[in-house]
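Suppose a colleague, Dr. K., hands you the sequence of a protein chain of 659 amino acids and asks what its three-dimensional shape might be. Before reaching for any lab equipment, you can write down a predicted structure in token form. Begin with the sequence itself:
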Amino acid sequence: MEETLRTVTGWRQCRQSAVRQDKCHGARYEPHRFGACPMTCPSSSRFRAAAPTLPSSRRLAASTPRCPLYRGGEAVRGRVLSGAGETRMHRHTNLAEALMDRAMLCAADEALVYPAEGGGEQRISYAALDAHARAVSAWLRARDAPGRRVLLALDPGPHAAAALLGCLYAGAVAVPVPAPTASRTEAERTAAIAKDAAVDLVLTETAHATETSRRLSLIGRTGITCLAVDGLSPHAHPAPYAHPAPYAPAAPYNRTAPHTAFDAHPAAPESTPARTTPDSLALLAYDAGPATAPRGALITHGNLLAAMPALRQALGTGRRSRIGGWLPRHHTPGLIGQLLHPLWLGATAVPLPVRPHLADPVAWLRALSRHGITHTVAPDTCYARCAAEATDEQLAGLDLSRLRTALNAAEPVSAATMAAFHRRCAAAGLRPGALVAGYAPAQAAPFLTAEGRGPVPGLDLRVVDPATRRPQPDGMVGEIWVRGPAVAAGHWGRSRDTEAAGGFLRTGDLGIARDGEIRMTGRTHEGGLADSLMVDGMPLHPQDVERELLRCGRPLGSARVFCAGPGTGPLVVVQEVGTAGGSRAALAGLAGRVRECVAEEFGAATGGVLLVRPGTVRRAGSHKVPRATLREQFLRGEVRPLYQDFVPLPREPAAGGVV
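The predicted structure, expressed as tokens, is then:
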């Protein structure tokens, strides 16, 4: 307590002096302009009022040589003085500087909380995360990584977070992809992304070394150097704090894989990030399109710096927030919104594992309650399944009163789903205004609009007819085009598309504009507004059918709907079911249930129903297999159903008569 009072006294003395001598640490600092810091700078009145409730380690950490201030939503950094009376205040020019400063300020605080099996938790401090990230950065910088593309193929855990921050610290361009699995589709997609991005280095884990090498060999990249991040020890780090890491990295992995050279020899960690500017590329974020044509959004450090204060303002996040969810960390809503944003704030990120919460949405509600999460994001299908499947007994023991904002994004949002979810979870303490609809494309950092809260400041957002490239009036469906400081500068290798659109980024999403807000309705196909089907002479939107089937509840899961012909013809439903071991009679009953739902809700006859295993339609993430891809697999006979039921269709009349 004595040290705390002396520290605060030292900061008060700087009101009368341009340069002060800190009584606790003996370091010299430049003065702060009082009243301009809405965060937890010890010189602000807000800090002194809250001081008795804060741990002394946090206040002592605040007296380190760098203290981030936030003036007008922009980060400003104070450096150690080189001489008396010298003043050098400047804005952050890249996200790495902001994250390093935050790590120094919040060294002892929780940065990450990972739920463990059996109900436990793995807690990572800012000091430990920063130390590991600096070790990764040193390895990258020793290999001339600044400006080079680095593939990140790791499980969503502390090593993945350290790898991402290490890339940012080193000035490299992170290219996140899903962790290697046995999925052939994901392997092909990862190989296509690595080829399209022309990656130079790879960060992975020991468990995935062999599979990563195999995937790189698919594209002939056999000379890429890789690092098993879990074998890189964050030791000998000259940080201004001494907080041991709460987890121990594995032994160094130093072997030569069949196709790729692995290295785990650490270099001396750098004390400052690589020199990068706001225009320097930070991420290549690939969307969930087909593996044959991957599209990587060019997200710069300037995009990230612009997005962070906008997110804080729109979602009401702050230092005391606990931001978590299961969205994949290789897409921007999960990577930026649920990982980088809380680390920029100095808050706590609670990344949830994808597969368990994708298979059981109620597990997501339990995690929100158990970990006291205040802000989360999930797709509409997750909210719909929770509303349909959560029982009174499951909700009875949950406490959702701490959830301030639950953003419904990453998919077209249904008003009916929003209302049903709120009715179902109100008994668990869900606040009336907590559920918010938003729009979060892969090309933004990480979302553009939130219902009732307007678009991100500085955003130029339009709904355009992709054929004529003219803006659509309010209420008319068109492709969403965006431009602004938090929006990607374009797509990797596709600069002509952005130039042809007048500097706007074409998202590939369909939507309507109304009262300054955007509502996503679906996805475009190549060449125009083709995200609708013609069944029995009537237009049918497949996403509406898929949403209605999801509302039927278990054992029916995600579905894909398409026509056997090019946009017309017999309707085919590929439906996931959770009862893979059910009898043939039970599966036949489920197929009849699907037909009945489509007929009653949309008045359309279903030509074929294929019941498939979980994971066929919805990948291990928030995105489904594109309809066009699944239709091609169906026509080639590559879909392996548990059960299929086709209604005999009338044959086309032969020439000269009727058959």
